[in-house]
Amino acid sequence: MMDVLDVAWRLLAVLLAFLVLPLVVGQAEHKVMAHMQGRVGPMYAGGFHGWAQLVADGVKFAQKEDVVPADADRRVFQLAPAVALIPYLLVLIAIPVGPDGMVGQAIDAGIFFVLAVMGVGVLGSLMGGWASANKFSLLGGLRTAAQLMAYELPLLLAAASVAMAAGTLSLPGILEAFEWWWVPWQIIGALVFFTAGLAELQRPPFDAPIADSEIIFGAYTEYTGLRFALFLLAEYAGIVVLCALTTVLFLGGWHGPFAADLGWLWTLLKTSVLAFVVIWLRVSYPRLREDQLQRLAWTVLVPLALFQIALTGVVKVVIQ
Q1: Which span out of 81-90, 121-130, 199-208, 268-277 was modeled with the highest average pLDDT?
Q2: What is the pLDDT of residue 123?
Q3: Within 10 A of 155 (CB to CB), how many other CB atoms are there?
Q4: Can you tell me the distance from the alpha carbon of 318 to that of 66, in angstroms, rounded to the nearest whole number?
Q5: CA distance to 44, 89, 211, 224, per residue, from 127 (Å)
Q6: DSSP assignment of 270-312, as one string?
Q7: 33 vs 307: CA distance, rounded Å
Q8: Could you tell me if 286 and 137 are in contact, meaning their C-beta atoms sit under 8 angstroms apart?
Q9: DSSP 8-state code for residue 98
Q10: 3-class DSSP assignment, residue 258
């Protein structure tokens, strides 16, 4: 009976985090962009600091008609938003928040699990682009496929460097083995991992697959109402997952002063800072062209990730 209650409590905590944290990131993006770009609109809804902007957006999406194009593959078109969103819920189950088993489910090959499931989430965009019976949507889906293939490799290589350093594929095991001097040693891998993760999420400046000035809105052009809102929610959930994984793999996760009691708070704070960086990058940098995206992945990130793995091997040999 206690085991059942423990599992139920862990699943409930993960579900609440999944429902709340992406919305918090979405609200923060409204406010940060409003301040950085002098946007007045997001500061009005609800009065004080536009606190009801997210509520207004939800009501707007709920009121819109759910349209499916006549020539679309209806089943695939309707399933795509769920395929884009649900994998991030599964990933959150495996991310440790604090010490002493504060994780939904400890998985021995946790790195393989989270990276594989994150890759599934991108398939939602491919499905939506292919099933929409729209040339612009198809072009956006093809750009998404090309971007996925280019940036999945540096993402995996950067994560492999941390696994080599810790001697385990388990995320809680990596945090148990973590030492603070790893931060400068693994900084190259951290930058590669974070950059490749942004590209897989199609966040600016890596948003060529949804370039509104070129192909309307890419794979999501034909989506309306709550289905479109699910794609947006998947993007914000992906930001939470990417920032949390970067925190766990490269920034020590729950490690910090009074970690035994406040470990979960350190994880949350580090994740929040990285989420702010994601929003700041959207405001600050112009969109990369498709050829620039591919060049960055294959000529910059992949060599840097391989260098990080080589450096990790040398350091491990020296230490032993």
Answers
A1: 268-277
A2: 83
A3: 26
A4: 60
A5: 37, 19, 18, 16
A6: HHHHHHHHHHHHHHHSPPPPHHHHHHHIIIIIHHHHHHHHHHH
A7: 35
A8: no
A9: B
A10: coil
Question: Which of 259, 265, 251, 269 minimizes the C-alpha distance to 99?
Answer: 259
pLDDT band at 284 (very low <50, low <70, confident <90, very high): confident
Question: What are the C-alpha distances in Å from 168 to residues 51, 90, 108, 121, 163?
Answer: 44, 21, 8, 25, 5
Residue 297 carries which DSSP code? I
Report for 69-78, 155-164, 214-223: range of highest mean pLDDT: 155-164
């370039």: which residue's tokens? 211
What is the reported pLDDT for 2? 56
Sorted by sequence, the CB contacts under 8 Å of residue 292 that are 6+ apart come out as none
- State both tokens at 281: 């990058």
pLDDT tops 80 at residue 95:
yes
Which pLDDT belongs to residue 25?
92
Q: How far apart are CA 142 and CA 96, in angstroms?
A: 34
Query: What is the pTM (predicted TM-score) of this model?
Result: 0.92
What is the rounded CA–CA span in Å between residue 81 and residue 240?
A: 18
Tokens of 65: 């008609």
3-state secondary structure of 11: helix
Residues 148-159 have pLDDT tens digits of: 888 999 999 999
- CA 192 from centroid of its chain's CA atoms: 14
Query: Rounded distance, CA 229 to CA 263, Å?
Result: 33
Residue 243 identity: C
The string of DSSP letters for 139-178 reads: HHHHHHHHHHHHHHHHHHHHHHHHHHHHT-S-HHHHHHH-
